[in-house]
Design a protein that fits this description.
This protein has 50 residues and is mainly alpha-helical. 64% of the residues lie in helices and 0% in strands. It contains two helices and no strands. The chain has helices at 7-21, 26-42. It is flat.
Length: 50
């Protein structure tokens, strides 16, 4: 049995758990996500899916 995880769902799961535990982290997590996606988009790394 082979189990392969992509980074997007794993990051989403960890972020969701952290938001449930510490709701004040929501704005920080969203801001970091948007910054990472924006930088990847500007650098033309469309093949990397988070």
């Amino acid at each position: 049995m082979s189990l392969s995880l992509s980074i997007g769902p794993l990051v989403s799961l960890i972020a969701g758990i952290l938001i449930l535990v510490m709701p004040r982290l929501l704005s920080t997590i969203v801001a970091l996500y948007l910054i990472v996606i924006g930088v990847l988009g500007l650098l033309g790394m469309h093949s990397l899916r988070l």
